[in-house]
């Protein structure tokens, strides 16, 4: 059997079905090659089938030993991990402190979207979602592992993560839905018995995302629940964590969002979150990216297990403009997974203009942070991108692709907010985006004017260096070369909002 | 001779002209009626004429004694202060802690504009300025007592405040003007001899503003100067302060702006400003409103001599949204005299869209603060409202009048940001503007949606109270009644930015 480096090697064994296989039996695999020896948990997948999944981090020959407590002897074998192909660059890691790169070194500029329940929809809608994703607007999908109960998202999912029966959903209305948030009453679950069909949905769609080169930012816990899954005991939480870690860790594109809006699960203290984080990371042998997303106050992102800041804007007015402060405070990549959505929702986070959504994106990226997208347009068919996926309806989505293409052109992989010089009085404040990598200092400058409409911008780097200058309309997605300049010069601008000026140093012949 | 209560009584005496009358002679007047006895300084007005001005704070018979050090005996007389007429409501005072009212109790809702040098222009342009002011968009004019040197404002004024000769202005360009800021070189002034013709300009135009019912917010000191007036000694500063106090205090519409962007006069410490404030207030017997305007960091508005916060936005993105915090921190009226201007300047403070300027205005007023306007459109004739007055060119000005008319309709005089109820989950944050005066609690609510575009807003005050509901388009300046409601109801909105909803309690028959 062959598998690519950073691919998924899976072995399935038939085992016992008596009692409760989820509780009564364990399965483990140890995988060895010349570079690594890794022991991973397997999981019970129903119908007497036990599975072990493994992601080889190296090329070459691997041998393995599978040890199931349901069997008298172990199972052994070998496989070859071949060179990665296509868009397989390995898992995404932190790079240059504030940025990201795949394990093979290829930079990853994170431009994510959110469809909380996209893979719990009918196949037709899931296919629509993937049609949209194929357009390449986004390279990360943020979604829930557990079902979600919220305004505009009140239908039961087609299946549930545990054996049992849910509360009667027919009582729900926009007026009363909130009373049920975080309540377990009316539900009857056996929390010792997972529903493998439910979790298999995620297997399939995480792989489908992986094949498209899209990261799967999996939300482990969240408060928007009417089934009691947000109210499980610590023992039940740990059982769940170990099951998803065993099931999904071998997919290279997995990121862990330990919680969405952690504070809303008020019964969990910070010590509980720290404990759950330890449990999850201890059972993820591949050290996937992991964070925890806030509602109104940031988690302490300085905790060592947190690889990046997964932020929701705390201030309603000033959002991604705080990226620089966040980088200084936390010293980690700053990803604004939620700063408001384009749409027509009554909720204050869900009715922004596309212009404002795109502007907030640029404010993030020019400071060396990364924006996140979703859409909240109410819909006759109750299919809303933010929760269900389906079809994109807004104007902002395609503009995230333009942002990524803009960043891909920055030397050294990623920007930071820097200082040009302060003797051009009152042109603007003297901040300008420059390459994060000091090896490219002086090669590239980007001025972004956001809501401002200067008629021109005076630039003066020094008297010798020549620059090729482009005027960029960040909303209209146009790049207009205006010529080659040196010394002190005015760059004319159209007097519109959302404009930028890019300077690229002319390389010596 | 007759004068109105809060009018200007002036008496002019012929006196000595030998030596330096500004330095060698003094004149003082003491004015008495049954309610007050006030001693005021007079001033030398040139050609041997010494003047004393007095504003009677009461109606009825006044007697006075004028004592000039140039004369051997005093001059005595009487006059009658009659009832105020027309728009004479007296000087503006602080009312209800965070708001303003004229001395006769009439509320004053401050909607100011800035034309720094409007009254140093040719008569034709001054007349244009007053034509615009007659439209009633603004009820306060902020301007400089001393001339101003700055980008787009480099021409010499037609006359100067002191005897002497200015530096050669022909050397100035947009590239080099900044080198001359705050420098005295090349000027030759006798700072012991004021130029009465210069100060008479302000007499005339302060009165002209007064007759229009417009407050004169007079900037005493500022840094944008190439003549050395920003670099005078403390003794010279005090001489100047006493001269303008004697000259202008009797005009009821005067407000004192001790400085514009005080920090930019770096040679003055806070103790210097405190000393100058004491000098000015000690020589203003009428206790006019007084503040000190910042550039990048607010002055300590808790100082007892400061009547109100005259703010320039410190953050480039979040400006008047901080009004509530400012009220809490300083406990005084919050007037945003500068949060950016509509125009096409290259400077970051001078190229905002009218929509953003108006939005920032509403963010201030709904929190119980007051916005300030100006315009910075570059112009062939170098006449720019922000500095020179002339003709208004923008879209925001007329919308300040709509704001004032909106406020005039609020019961009790002025709004504050309040709390409605928090059981309407996620409609919006639960903040709403309500009357400052607790006597009107429950009578009036105003929701403002700023950049947000909710398709409707659910409202629920209680199940009994009936409200007449209007939808207000704050940018288009329309008020659309949508009916009479009680209990829990949805108010439909057009899904545009800058909308608001107003609820007025139906009064019992």
Secondary-structure topology with pairs:
The structure is a homodimer of 509-residue chains.
Chain A: E1 2-4, E2 9-14, H1 21-24, E3 27-32, E4 37-41, E5 43-44, E6 49-54, E7 60-68, E8 75-82, E9 92-95, E10 99-102, E11 107-108, E12 112-114, H2 123-133, E13 140-144, E14 162-165, E15 188-194, H3 196-211, E16 215-222, H4 234-248, E17 254-260, H5 270-282, E18 290-291, E19 309-312, H6 323-330, E20 334-338, E21 342-343, H7 354-365, E22 370-373, E23 375-376, H8 385-388, H9 397-408, E24 415-419, E25 431-435, E26 444-448, E27 456-460, E28 467-473, E29 478-485, E30 488-492, E31 499-505
Parallel strand pairs in A: 1-8, 12-13, 12-22, 13-16, 16-17, 17-18, 19-20, 20-22, 21-23
Antiparallel strand pairs in A: 2-6, 3-4, 3-7, 5-6, 7-8, 9-10, 10-11, 14-15, 24-25, 26-31, 27-30, 28-29, 28-31
Helix pairs in contact in A: 4-5, 7-9
């Amino acid at each position: 059997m062959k598998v690519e480096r950073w691919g998924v090697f899976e072995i399935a064994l038939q085992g016992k079905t008596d009692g409760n296989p989820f509780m009564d039996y364990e399965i483990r695999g140890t995988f060895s090659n010349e570079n690594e020896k890794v022991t991973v948990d397997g999981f019970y997948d129903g119908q007497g089938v036990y599975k072990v999944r493994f992601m080889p981090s190296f090329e070459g020959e691997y041998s393995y030993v599978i040890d199931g407590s349901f069997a008298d002897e172990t199972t052994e074998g070998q496989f070859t991990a071949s060179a990665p192909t296509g868009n397989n660059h390995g898992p995404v890691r932190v790079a240059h402190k504030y940025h990201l790169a795949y394990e093979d070194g290829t930079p990853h500029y994170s431009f994510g979207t959110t469809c909380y329940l996209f893979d719990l929809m009918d196949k037709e809608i899931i296919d629509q979602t993937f049609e949209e994703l194929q357009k390449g607007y986004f390279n990360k999908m943020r979604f829930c592992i557990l079902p979600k109960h919220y305004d505009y998202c009140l239908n039961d999912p087609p299946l549930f993560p545990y054996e049992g029966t849910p509360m009667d959903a027919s009582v729900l209305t926009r007026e009363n839905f909130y009373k049920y948030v975080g309540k377990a009453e009316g539900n009857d679950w056996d929390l010792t018995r997972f529903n493998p069909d439910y979790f298999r949905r995620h297997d399939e769609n995480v792989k489908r995302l992986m094949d498209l080169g899209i990261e799967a930012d999996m939300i482990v816990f969240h408060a928007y629940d009417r089934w009691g899954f947000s109210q499980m005991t610590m023992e039940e939480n740990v059982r769940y964590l170990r099951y998803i870690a065993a099931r999904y860790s071998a997919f290279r594109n997995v990121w862990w969002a330990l919680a969405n809006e952690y504070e809303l699960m008020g019964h969990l203290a910070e010590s509980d979150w720290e404990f759950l984080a330890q449990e999850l990371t201890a059972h993820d042998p591949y050290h996937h990216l992991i964070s925890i997303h806030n509602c109104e106050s940031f988690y302490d992102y300085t905790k060592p297990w947190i690889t990046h800041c997964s932020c929701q804007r705390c201030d309603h007015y000033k959002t991604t403009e705080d990226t620089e402060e966040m980088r200084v405070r936390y010293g980690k990549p700053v990803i604004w997974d939620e700063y408001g959505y384009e749409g027509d929702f009554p909720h204050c986070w869900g009715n922004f203009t596309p212009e404002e959504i795109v502007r907030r994106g640029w404010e993030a990226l020019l400071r060396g942070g990364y924006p996140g997208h979703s859409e909240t347009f109410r819909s006759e068919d109750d299919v809303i991108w933010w929760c269900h996926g389906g079809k994109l309806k807004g104007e902002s989505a395609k503009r995230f692709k333009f942002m990524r293409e803009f960043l891909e052109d920055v030397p050294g992989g990623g920007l930071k907010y820097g200082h040009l010089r302060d003797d051009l009085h009152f042109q603007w404040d003297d901040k300008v985006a420059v390459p994060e990598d000091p090896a490219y200092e002086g090669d590239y400058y980007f001025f972004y004017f956001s809501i401002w409409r200067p008629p021109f911008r005076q630039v003066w780097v020094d008297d010798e260096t020549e620059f090729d200058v482009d005027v960029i309309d960040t909303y209209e997605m146009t790049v207009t070369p205006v010529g080659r300049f040196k010394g002190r010069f005015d760059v004319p601008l159209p007097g519109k909002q959302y404009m930028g000026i890019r300077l690229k140093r002319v390389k010596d012949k």
